[in-house]
Sequence to fold (310 residues):
Amino acid sequence: MDHQRRHLLGVEGLAPPAISGFLDLAESYVLLNRSGQTQRDLLRGHTLINLFFEDSTRTRTSFELAGKRLGADVLNMSVATSSVNKGETLLDTAATLNAMQCDLLVVRHDQSGAPSLLAQKVDAAVINAGDGTHEHPTQALLDALTIRRRKGRLEGLTVAICGDILHSRVARSNLHLLTTMGSRVRVVGPPTLIPAEVARLGVTVFHDMAAGLAGADIVMMLRLQRERMTAGLVPSAREYFRFFGLDAAKLAHARPDALVMHPGPMNRGVEIDSAIADDPARSVIREQVEMGVAVRMAVLDTLARGGRNR
Fold:
C-alpha cells in the first residue's frame, strides 16, 4: 500500500470508492453505537496517541471515544505541558513517538503540512485531525455521512458552504470530497474571505447569500476564524451577521427541506442564528457530532488493517 493510503492526511486525491468505503463502514458503526454494543476486541493491543497542538473538544474527544470503543489503548498527549512546549522539534517528537511504538497517531497542528511531515518519520499510521488552513479529512467524512443518511445520496445535491472559506480547513476537505462524489458545490461569503483560486476547484462563487442559497439542498455554515485573520477582513460581528449570518429570511431561499450544518464551535449571532441552529426540523448539527464518532471508528479500523476497506 502506498504512503498516502497508509495514512489519512487529506481528502484530496481520495477516489470515490475509498470515500464510499469509509462511509459504508462508518454506517455500520452508527448502528453498533446506537445498539449500545462495542467491538472492544478489534483494536485490542493497538496504541492510539492523540497529539493535539491546538485546542479541540469535539475532535479529540470523539477520537478518544472511537479508539476506546474499538478496544485500543488511548493516550492523550497535552502539548501545553509536554516537551514540545519546552522547545522540542516536531522531528524529535516523532522519534519519541516511535520509541513508544504507537500504532495510530492522530495529529492536530496549527501549521499546514505538519501531519504529513510526521507521517514520513513515524512508523504509526497518521490521521490528520486538522492542520493549519489545509485539511480536516474526518470532518468532511462525517459531514458526508450526515448528508448521505438524510438525503440518501451525495451525487447531484446542491451544497452551499458559507462564510470564512479562506481560513477553513473544513471547507477545503469538504470541497474536495463533495465535488469528487458528484455534488454541485457553491461557496458563499465576502470577497475578503474567499480564496482567489477556489473557482478552479470546480465550485461556483457567490458574494450574496440569497443568490448563493437559492435552491440549495444543504447549507453548511462555517465559523468566523478571527484568530487566523489579519485586521480589516470583516466588519463588525453585527454587520457580518446582517449580510452573511444564517437566519430564517436567508434560509428561505434554499429548498424547503434544506438541511443546516455547522462543524462547530458555533458563534451564535455571528454566522448563525440560534433559532436556526436549534431547529430540529432543519438543523443536523448535533447529528454531525454523533456521526463523528462512527466515522473516526471507521478510519481507525481501516488504517489499523493497513488501509483495506472491507
